[in-house]
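Good morning,

Attaching, inline, the backbone tokens for the sequence recovery test we're adding to the shared suite. The designed sequence is right after.
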């Protein structure tokens, strides 16, 4: 059996196995979900038998619940609902055969199984967590006031440069750049002299040699990996737009002729402008608190031991691991299957809330 198909089968097998827990729950226990509208007797009604296994109405309804709401719309007609049941039967057949052949012991299948179970537990922990809209305004405002400095953007500047390999050639380029009266002349200089691979990019002349935007040297948020600190400082020493720094700037074994191409005025974002991103961040924090609390509670009941000495002996050869087909990220497997919970990790979109990792920076 192909690894992809194996993961497909085990992803849905976990879902359907999890659905069995619906059989013993009453309608009052499960909130307002479709499954909760079923009585115990209805949930236990058998829709299909596959060998000695059954697919119940509770299983079927739970599979629908696990879908995205737009995917669920596809199953409104009797024909499409029958298709879903047929797919569940196919999954059960494949799962039984895979188990019979011992594929459930495959390390990759075990890893994927653990990932699906992990996500199911985290999803349970997130239930009832506040959405961004639920975060009290007083809490949002308090966070804004406590971090107000993070919403004050200083003046930023766009920098262009001619990059040279020696100081002598850089001084020659500087003399020519100081005589360049137009953006076209600057662009021609960049393309003819710079050793930067991007110097000959097909861009307007005034953007030739563009290195991006940076904040003042004393602003820790203004780092730009393409702009060395020395070049950044030189850019803020230039007064006029289109001006060239009067000295060659040495940095990292290269020499730069620095030109200022744009000034971006300071800007402070008010509460209204920052509110949405703050709400997203605070809601994400609350989700992570629930997840962290779950892990702490689990560690109280389960002893965890790590052999640091053994861990220190591990070496990872990235090139050979890639060639050998290393175990893939568990986040790329069961997502396309109807009824299967997403196996994405707890990172960027925790609990359906968009990533707010850049919340405190610029929008």
């Amino acid at each position: 059996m192909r690894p992809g198909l194996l993961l497909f089968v085990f992803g849905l097998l976990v879902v359907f196995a999890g659905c069995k827990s619906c059989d013993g729950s009453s309608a009052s226990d499960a909130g307002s979900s479709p499954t909760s509208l079923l009585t115990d007797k209805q949930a236990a009604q058998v829709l299909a038998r596959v060998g000695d296994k059954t697919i119940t109405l509770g299983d079927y309804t739970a599979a629908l619940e696990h879908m995205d709401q737009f995917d669920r719309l596809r199953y409104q007609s009797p024909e499409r609902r029958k298709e879903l049941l047929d797919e569940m039967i196919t999954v059960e057949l494949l799962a039984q055969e895979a188990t019979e052949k011992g594929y459930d012991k495959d390390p990759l299948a075990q890893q994927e199984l653990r990932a699906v179970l992990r996500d199911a537990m985290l999803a349970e922990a997130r239930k009832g967590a506040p959405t961004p809209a639920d975060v009290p305004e007083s809490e949002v405002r308090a966070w804004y006031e406590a971090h107000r400095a993070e919403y004050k953007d200083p003046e930023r500047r766009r920098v262009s440069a001619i990059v040279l390999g020696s100081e002598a050639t850089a001084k020659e380029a500087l003399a020519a750049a100081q005589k360049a009266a137009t953006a076209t002349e600057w662009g021609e200089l960049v393309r003819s002299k710079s050793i930067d691979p991007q110097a000959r990019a097909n861009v307007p002349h005034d953007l030739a040699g563009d290195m991006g935007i940076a904040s003042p040297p004393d602003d820790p948020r203004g780092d730009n990996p393409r702009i060395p600190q020395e070049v950044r400082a030189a850019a803020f020493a230039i007064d006029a737009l289109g001006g060239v720094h009067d000295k060659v700037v040495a940095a990292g074994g290269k020499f730069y002729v620095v030109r200022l191409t744009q000034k971006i005025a300071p800007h402070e974002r008010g509460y209204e402008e920052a509110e949405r991103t703050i709400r997203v961040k605070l809601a994400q924090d609350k989700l992570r608190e629930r997840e962290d609390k779950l892990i702490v509670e689990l560690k109280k009941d389960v002893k965890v031991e790590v052999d640091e000495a053994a861990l220190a002996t591990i070496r990872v050869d990235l090139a050979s691991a890639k060639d050998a087909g290393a175990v893939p990220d568990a986040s790329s497997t069961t997502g396309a299957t109807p009824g299967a919970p997403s196996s994405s990790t707890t990172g960027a979109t925790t609990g359906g809330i968009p990533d707010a990792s850049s919340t405190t920076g610029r929008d």
